[in-house]
């Protein structure tokens, strides 16, 4: 600044002065690191190849590879379009959304619902719900950390980092077995300081597709009780693991039965295919109604300073779907259909790789659940898939199974077989089962 004023005093022209001032404001701003998932979409869009495949972002696609508008959403939109909403009715419907969302997670007949022992707010999809909670955690437990699984959805790290909550990871995935590293996970839970915050994926873990069994969840919950840890569940794929929303809530119900106070971020981006509408919910269980009122007001206050209030259109549709029994029945069937299509593609991809004589073990494709398959493909192999075969996925080898269709699955299998069995010069890479 001092140097600049010296220049100004020496009689620079006005435009030079303005430019000097402008340069000084933003010179230090460099490009942010690319988001690993959005970077895949960008590379895919820039590729002119007609048979390219996008297996990056975890958003549902139909068997033609197209985004879907679910029938339940069409029905709900038909009903809400006829109504003229006043501000007060929107607030009431937002509360309805929160109540119905909480029922999905904690159970229609659960005591927390009957007694109103939860604080919930509408949130900007799953990301917004996580961000609100991270901010809440920092405000009310400023010295706490968050423990998250290794690996986890890449944005979890950014969200808690931006909220200035220190991050620790806990063991989760075993690359050799391509399954859960349960022993190491339990050790990490045990060794964390008592009263730590833990981020858990209740079903369809992203990116691994590996979930603990009910018995393992039970053990985790019991250890959380002993250690007095706080479980925060990020529920972005309810319905996608098993096709049944109740079944996919079982991990949370196990914790609930053990008497934990729980936090939960919910997203309707995938299970209602409403990605662009940003509809979600954050709920925190409380000891009583008085606590619930206080916590809700704090969450609302955090939201109001960041974005005011959330958009209403998607919220109206989701509220309608959840509260109208006929439309809800359509939705439950559609969730089942989406999950079944993804499961079918898992089986088909595995079979196709085996038919090609791939020497690798592809069993994990069907053992894993949810939207993703953590394939074990290396960054080099992922790179070759994009450059030689126009198949795009994140560098950690995560395949969004929602992008696999009956039309592209054979091509995908041969591309994966090529990059895993042969090097770029056609030399054989593997001869025995890995
Ligand atoms: N939690 C998890 C575990 C998750 O995978 C996502 C999105 C979100 C929260 C955020 O969801 P939303 O409701 O859209 O805010 N994951 C996929 C999409 C993305 O990154 O945007 C993905 O991993 O591809």
Automatic annotation (TrEMBL):
Question: Which Enzyme Commission number(s) are on file for it?
Answer: 2.6.1.1
User: What InterPro entries does the database record attribute to this sequence?
Assistant: Aminotransferase_I/II_large, Asp_trans, NHTrfase_class1_PyrdxlP-BS, PyrdxlP-dep_Trfase, PyrdxlP-dep_Trfase_major, PyrdxlP-dep_Trfase_small
Broadest EC class? transferase
Keywords of the record, alphabetical order, are:
Aminotransferase, Pyridoxal phosphate, Transferase
Keyword Transferase assigned to the entry: answer is yes
Necessary cofactors: pyridoxal 5'-phosphate
> Does Transferase appear among the keywords?
yes
Q: Which reaction does it catalyse?
A: L-aspartate + 2-oxoglutarate = oxaloacetate + L-glutamate
Aminotransferase class I/classII large domain residues: 52-416
Q: Name one GO molecular function term.
A: L-aspartate:2-oxoglutarate aminotransferase activity
Q: Which Gene3D superfamilies match?
A: Aspartate Aminotransferase, domain 1 (3.90.1150.10), Type I PLP-dependent aspartate aminotransferase-like (Major domain) (3.40.640.10)
Biological process annotations from GO: amino acid metabolic process
Q: Which SUPFAM superfamilies match?
A: PLP-dependent transferases (SSF53383)
Q: What else is known?
A: In eukaryotes there are cytoplasmic, mitochondrial and chloroplastic isozymes.
Give the family from UniProt.
Belongs to the class-I pyridoxal-phosphate-dependent aminotransferase family.
PANTHER family, alphabetized: ASPARTATE AMINOTRANSFERASE (PTHR11879)
According to the record's subunit comment, the protein's assembly and interactions are: Homodimer.
Q: What does this protein do?
A: Amino acid aminotransferase important for the metabolism of amino acids and Krebs-cycle related organic acids. No activity with D-Asp or D-Ala as amino donors. In plants, it is involved in nitrogen metabolism and in aspects of carbon and energy metabolism.
Q: Report the NCBIfam families cross-referenced here.
A: PRK09257.1
Protein name in UniProt: Aspartate aminotransferase
For this protein's source organism, the top of the classification is: Eukaryota, Viridiplantae, Streptophyta, Embryophyta, Tracheophyta
